Amino acid sequence: MGENIDANERARILAVPSTSPTVTLAVILVHPAVSFELYIERLRALISAAVDISRTVNFDEDSTVAIDSLPEWFRNMSDVIAGEGASSYSNAGLGDPWDPEEWIYCFDPDLRAWAWCYVTVREDGVAVWVDTLGESHVPHDELLWALYVSGAESVDPLYMEDATVWENESH
Questions:
Q1: Which residues of the chain, if any, have pLDDT below 70?
Q2: Counting Cβ atoms within 10 Å, is residue 28 exposed (0-12), middle (13-18) or buried (19+)?
Q3: Among residues 61, 63, 59, which one has the least CA distance to residue 106?
Q4: What is the pLDDT at residue 16?
Q5: What is the pLDDT of residues 155-168, one digit of tens each?
Q6: Residue 5 to residues 26, 32, 79, 107, 157: CA-CA distances in angstroms?
Q7: Residues 6 or more apart from 118 whose CB is under 8 A from it?
Q8: b vs e for 63-73, b when ≥16 Cβ sit within 10 Å of the residue's Cβ?
Q9: Kind and range of the H or E run holding 23
Q10: pLDDT at position 5, please?
Q11: Global confidence as pTM
Q12: Which of 104, 132, 143, 144 has the most CB atoms at less than 10 Å from its CB?
């Protein structure tokens, strides 16, 4: 996605966007182990910090990337929610826990294949909407890790949805 990532991504993390970026969006339905409100707060804090870092770092030239602005609970896996999310991630067969220093490199704008759109609340979970420029198969392992450690009990596979569905959901 690289340079195609919308410059307004951070604004969309924190507020309802006025328009959807594309006709087709990718959706990941998350089943949080915590309240929907707490889950969304944690996820937004984590993703917005990562996007901020990605906007200020030269991933090709900087030998280390400062991660101090990532939430402390994420950097140290220091609370029960993050720990249980990491266990759920592993139990889902998605691999080993991510190191925060390695994880942040997946936010390199030249490598990341998705951009944040928004979250909506459904009866059965939290829908995380991302722009993949219409591609139904994009690498998003770093997003799955963020979804789990923010408090997910389980996460359904990514699927494509018409943007009108997003527009009609509760924001």
A1: 1-7, 10-22, 170-171
A2: buried
A3: 59
A4: 63
A5: 999 999 988 888 78
A6: 14, 27, 32, 11, 22
A7: 12, 16, 17, 129, 166, 171
A8: eebebeebbeb
A9: none
A10: 46
A11: 0.89
A12: 143
> Minimal CA–CA distance to 15: which of 118, 106, 107?
118
- Dig out the tokens for 143 from the structure: 């997003």
Q: Exposure of 76 by Cβ count < 10 A (0-12 exposed, 13-18 middle, 19+ buried)? A: exposed
Positions of E strands within 17-100: 24-32
Spatial contact of 120 and 161, defined as CB atoms under 8 Å apart: no
Distance, in Å, from the CA atom of 15 to the CA atom of 153, rounded to the nearest integer, reads 25
| Residue 88 to residues 75, 146, 151, Cα–Cα distance (Å) | 18, 12, 9
